[in-house]
Amino acid sequence: MSTSPDPVDPVAPIDPIAPVNVIAPVDPVELYGPEYTRDPYPLYAELRARGPVHRVRFPSGVCAWLVTGYEAAHQALTDVRLGKHHSRGNAAWRARASIMPEPQHSQLQVHLLHQDPPRHTALRRLITDAFAPQRVEGLRPRFQEMADALLDGLPDAGEADLVEVFAGRFPFRVLAEVIGLPPEFGKRFDRDWGKVVQPVGPSDPGRPAYETRLRALQQYIADLVVHKRAERGEDPLSRLVAARDDGRLGQEELDSMIFQLLVAGQEPVTNQITTALVTLLRHPAHLAELAGRPELLPRAVEELLRYDSAFELTTWRFFAKDADLHGTRIPAGDSVIVSLCAANRDAHQFPDADALHFDRTPNPHLAFGHGIHFCPGATLARIELQIALGTLLRRLPDLRLTVPDGELGWIPAVLARGVDRLPVAYGAPPACPVTEGPGIPHQVTDRPDVPHQVTDGPGAACPVTDRPDVPRPVAEGPHATCPVTNGLDAAC
After folding, report:
1. Residue 174: CB partners within 8 Å, gap ≥ 6?
2. pLDDT digits 0-9 by tens, 320-356
3. Residue 44 · residue 345 · CB < 8 Å
């Protein structure tokens, strides 16, 4: 495994521009594979221990410089030398990077994530009102109605895929309400288009399918702009179209801003709901505590964001000229990426960082980034997570996975985390017809946690024999059918 030079004392302040000459490691660390996708945190812990900056390789073959550790990440996110515009990328990065092909790259990627001041400042100003804390907080009752409506059709107990029935639907409905998406366009939107935030490299076999999604989404955006121009209102989408018409936005900027709202405004929230639920299912005591004490939700959401963030890595950043970053020489145009997840598990910032603590305070996690590119929809996302988790735990009691944890399918996105399916059971387990004592495993259900109907536990009198701890005479042979359980080879 390749690393940066000897680590800097993580407690001491790091000088990000200290001039040193460091020879880059030959073999980059590979940031892909099933083990990494399922649980990247052991690798992040190792990298943090070795130093703040590391050469890494992504599935497309493109190499980048990964920043780990809280202090190093915090500084990199506010380093004015690092720009986001893709024009800064060098030829080696552009040849293999998982970015959109042309012409879509020039037409849909001119949004906030890929802009630098002063243009970034002007574009961000156009959407801040839409996501202002007071405005989205006022919509909380409406969001709660949406969440409940999605679960109203489910039975009181059963099984469901929480991505299909809830996590993949709720964030889009909220987003449509916030930005003013017309109902007919809400029905037309294909959730599969959200996968365009998971770009693949030029040589990836999935590239043709990716480009098909991209073209369909681009046409959808063009149709939406025509509609909003003809039926203009006071909603955020109408205001963006107005900004294009009065010259404050270019056409590519308008399309890119709508693209960012439609995709980045919902898919990461879907992923964050799933990562939070997986965390809770892996920590049943915390799940039970949160279900019983919904007043913990605001603080619990912050800790779940820190513990496993859907925004695993930031998007690309570039130096305009060769520069030193935390003791490592970075060539101009090479991509620099900050690991938000690695920073959020740094024990120097968060004591007992690998444990889940709902009472953690303060909790200055970086799940929404930091600096001028801090997520403008952070308040909305927090409200969505609070409502989503609170509603699911209230409406679907006794949540439990129906597949082994290791069989969960983690999305293949380069920069994000989440599962594509989350199959669960909920509600009280079915009653067993043989015994009634809790915690008694037996041959019919093989489950120690289900209620039983005939006896009250070990040593209880059998209603057939009236005597405790004796074989029941109803099913006398090893191959007899028991009239209570109707099963062969079952203890009656």
Report:
1. 143, 146, 266, 269, 380, 384
2. 999 999 999 999 999 999 999 999 999 999 999 999 9
3. yes
Residue 102 to residue 107: CA distance in whole angstroms: 8
CA separation for the pair 337, 237 (Å, rounded)? 31
> Can you tell me the distance from the alpha carbon of 212 to that of 196, in angstroms, rounded to the nearest whole number?
10
**Strands (DSSP E) found in 188-258:** none
Answering whether pTM is above 0.90, one says: no
Identity of the amino acid at 107: Q
Whole-angstrom Cα distance, residue 188 to residue 411? Answer: 24
Question: How far apart are alpha carbons 348 and 168 in whole angstroms?
Answer: 35
Question: Which amino acid, 61?
Answer: G
Helix (H, G, I), strand (E, B) or coil at 313: strand
Tokens 């001119």 map to which residue?
110
Burial class (CB in 10 A: 0-12, 13-18, 19+), 404: exposed
Q: Which helix (H) or strand (E) holds 30?
A: strand 29-30
- Determine whether 242 is exposed, middle or buried from the number of CB atoms within 10 Å of its CB (0-12, 13-18, 19+): middle
pLDDT tens profile 205-258: 888 888 888 899 999 999 999 999 999 899 999 999 999 999 999 999 999 999
For the segment 194-200, the average pLDDT, to the nearest whole number, is: 71
Say if CB 31 and CB 62 are below 8 A apart.
no
